[in-house]
# Entry
Amino acid sequence: MTIENAKNDLYALQRKLAAYDHALGLITYDGATTAPKGTADNRAASLSVLSEELYRLSTSNETVELLEYLDGEKEALTEKERRMVFLLLKDIREMKKIPIEEFVEFQELLVTADDVWHRAKEASDFEMFCPYLEKIFETTKRFALYVEPDKDPYDYSLNKFEEGITRKTLDEFFEKLRAGIVPLLKKIGEKEQVDDSIRFGFFPIEKQDELSYYLMKTIGLDLERVGLSTTEHPFTTSLGSHLDERITTHYFENDFVCSMYSVVHEGGHALYDTGSNRDLAYTVLDGGTSMGIHESQSRFYENIIGRSRAFCELVFPKLCELFPEQMKGRTAEELYIAVNKAEPSLIRTEADELTYSLHVMIRYELEKRIFDGELEVKELPKEWNRMYKEYLGIDVPDDKHGVLQDSHWSGGLIGYFPSYALGNAYGAQFLAKMKEELDVDSCIKSGDFSAINSWNREHIWRHGSLYSPSDILERVLEAPFNADYYIDYLNNKYNEIYSL
Amino acid sequence: MTIENAKNDLYALQRKLAAYDHALGLITYDGATTAPKGTADNRAASLSVLSEELYRLSTSNETVELLEYLDGEKEALTEKERRMVFLLLKDIREMKKIPIEEFVEFQELLVTADDVWHRAKEASDFEMFCPYLEKIFETTKRFALYVEPDKDPYDYSLNKFEEGITRKTLDEFFEKLRAGIVPLLKKIGEKEQVDDSIRFGFFPIEKQDELSYYLMKTIGLDLERVGLSTTEHPFTTSLGSHLDERITTHYFENDFVCSMYSVVHEGGHALYDTGSNRDLAYTVLDGGTSMGIHESQSRFYENIIGRSRAFCELVFPKLCELFPEQMKGRTAEELYIAVNKAEPSLIRTEADELTYSLHVMIRYELEKRIFDGELEVKELPKEWNRMYKEYLGIDVPDDKHGVLQDSHWSGGLIGYFPSYALGNAYGAQFLAKMKEELDVDSCIKSGDFSAINSWNREHIWRHGSLYSPSDILERVLEAPFNADYYIDYLNNKYNEIYSL
# Structure
């Protein structure tokens, strides 16, 4: 093996992995967007075969030999190639510890579980979904122990989404958030609630669709490369590479705000993915480096930008054009107040910035306790409802608006939720840094996002997964990560809105 | 190798092939339906990798040994297994004669060509598409000669869509059609033209969409398994197996008839595919046996059923419900007359039953002459326009309404078009046979398609590709195929409509 041949093989291998990724991702995306309802069995059959093929390709002797050869020739590799080899080897060494039949079985389980979850949610019937969720939790824990028998399996699960994070760090982080958020929420509860009636009424889907494309264009997405579809639960996915990106939203005819912020949130993910340097396409460095950094971008665009006064002023004329009847006599300020109303609520994705992290904490606590054997999956609805009462003071009317609301667990994404809260906090610290160089509010108000996007591209997006999340934070912040920025941001914002 | 293991491997192999088929088919379908416009390069990259993987799987020594072993143990195989082995071996022996790099390059070419064709059609610019089409024709011919150096390469191309057919047979068949159709069309031309104004007006897309689902349900499609999307050019595709079927249509706001018959046509394809016996799923016997038989079903539902007086009477009340303003004062009889107006026109897919075969003949003649070296691809627009003048007496205003109208060539489907004309003729003879057992008109009028569908399922659909097209014809007809049935059908229909 010569180093030149090996390098060629390295890129060829990654092109293959990307193509399988494209196929698997598209079959899943199709299931969520377009496929007829009764076809989950057919997708499961194909996903099972293709993930087995991918597994065999990834773990073949030929692949392992190639990567180990390159790993031994580090000085002949570029920085990017070293990271590729590192990430691939890490992944393969982990995969090889999971028996292939169990791996394939799990992929099949996830397809069926996703289908069952959709139906269970529609019927608000947790029992229907429970046996699948039990298997998902059980398998996730079992796989974690296969890979790192000596590590806390929940820490392992967290690390899949945020390299290096531990429950210890998160416990402290969430404690800090709780200490900041709960008193603020209490003070707001004592004040008169603000008026958010501007968001409710009748907003035809086709007009909301126009709004979506306007927002996508406004925040700087390339519509030749980024598509929009509708799904039960909004998400973002790259198909094969960042050169074909899809976001989804969910429209509600009686409330345009839900979809508006889904589009800006998913749009933030898409900006990050599609901002990868062109030469990272068809490599494992393509796209974002961790879910925490990913959520920092999506929630930066959704909240820090999207729920700013400047953004509301920018978007308001478009709303007047699309919904002239509904917006008659309204103002941009009313929109700003409405989209920042802080109030305990049932649905995480529709929660305001302030209460959002409490939703995340509940899920984090539940996952931990299931992993620790302190809680059984079948007890989830009862415990979910109890915690919503404790943390947010509200009663959950049914499982559809409770434990069945999120798609993450049915998709096997256990350990993911903390990424959202981390993302919020990272984003607030990025903002402070960005403001040292840019007049962020003026940029937003002008509708020209190029300076903001250039800053994010320069510091974060273009690197793809070249750096670990902690490396990215260090490079951008030039200081340790500190959740105080986020608490300060929340205090400033809500003190003003609610005249606390 | 034991026979039992080998049989298991045979089914496992076919499940793999089906999964790749699913992936490749879905990436292509996504490109036509949902993908953002600028992403063809990304699809080309993945299709290239996956078709190479499929090629390697299909032609591996392991696969060939397995199939040759089974081929030598015919007496231990069921009828179905014998046919599986036969079809797989035939395919593989052909594939192995095509160098893999050329095969992969062709797949990439087709993705790009499809994208260019879409843009070229929109811009009505044949020159943009010409270099791609030249390569497609050149490669198709080259591949034909790799596989069967001693066979006429156009015969080989025809056989890919209709096993056993030759240009000699087709020349005679088309001559018979021409001799029947041209005088009939001439007689009609001398009569006063019928009124088809009922189809024109304003028909909102969402109402036409409702009509599509009504039609799909009416003809007996299982909406849990069959999906509908919109595309530039309507088509039908199975994804992985007949358990997930997709049809597409194209809506025109000013004319509901176009989409109405696209849906019924593609619905006929979907009925055939989804009518395969359940145990054929994930085998090469799944779905229709040839494009001629396939078109016999699609055009049976579109024309023989769909353009019958009984069907117009059945559908008319639904049209009145969906388009009350437009249908005010109209009758089912006016619909029947309008959808059977025979008149030379520019677009094949919108042509009436009578002139349709003339459109096909033009394409057949052009393909033959290009294969024979008598015509160059760059001369196609000029020759296309000349032949439309000669065969149909009309002037082609631009390439969009001329040589660029069909998606077949950009998709590499050279030799496909005759299937449509064969399908028309097969269908007319099937109808005569069906009428010996069923009162077809009463079935249609009642809106209950179960007897008609059962007949087709029993005789045709359930077999999938177990029998060759000629075997199917023989089994159904119990007599030789005879195009006179079609000519008689046309004469009866148009003599009555135009009082000839």
Summary: The mean pLDDT of chain A is 96. The first strand of chain A starts at residue 226 and ends at 230.
